[in-house]
Design goal:
mainly alpha; 8% strand; elongated; transmembrane
Length: 190
């Protein structure tokens, strides 16, 4: 009798039991994995909306203090920047002027300097950590990723290049993409 008890203690899972466990795990994985992938796209779209909101707020604050949108006028100071700072060098209606005017201190006329003071360069910077990237493609923080236009009409990107599209006359900022999000709307409509 002792040998029968010892045999019963060593009994493991049968092949059928193992197959049932594997099948249940596969079914659960098939249900859970798509949920994670949609959560990732939802997170990226929420980050895009947040980055756009911050960028749009900075553009509107600049407009309120200067009466023109950033990038509409030159950011170059003609050498009048503080001796410890660096003057902006963006021409009017350029991505560089937009970046200079949002990221540096500015005068009432829109000229910029990396060092502020109480009299001339008393406004800004409007974005302290740089231009944000669009969360979908990761582009937008450098001048090459920003398409600047001047018509003052609603922007409608023709390609899915990513980065930002910006109009210096209307102040409109959109993601430079005609691709669609998880709900079927164009990213440029966020």
């Amino acid at each position: 009798m002792p040998s029968t008890l010892r045999h019963a203690d060593q009994r493991g899972f049968t092949l059928v039991e193992l197959l049932i466990v594997v099948i249940i795990m596969a079914i659960l994985a098939a249900i859970v994995i798509p949920q994670f992938s949609s959560a990732t796209s939802d997170t990226k779209e929420a980050a895009l909306d947040s980055n756009l909101a911050g960028l749009r707020n900075a553009v509107e604050l600049y407009k309120a203090q200067h009466s023109v949108y950033p990038g509409d006028v030159t950011s170059g100071s003609g050498g009048t920047c503080n001796t410890t700072g660096t003057a902006g060098n963006g021409a009017a209606d350029s991505a560089q002027a937009l970046m200079d005017q949002l990221l540096a201190y500015s005068s009432t006329t829109g000229t910029t300097c990396t060092v502020g003071d109480a009299t001339t360069y008393k406004y800004g910077p409007y974005l302290r950590k740089g231009l944000p990237n669009d969360a979908i493609t990761g582009k937008g923080s450098v001048a090459a990723d920003i398409v600047v236009t001047t018509p003052g009409t609603p922007l409608a990107p023709a390609a899915a290049t990513g980065g930002w599209a910006y109009d210096t006359k209307s102040g409109q900022v959109v993601m430079n993409s005609n691709a669609t999000d998880s709900k079927g709307a164009a990213y440029s409509t966020h």
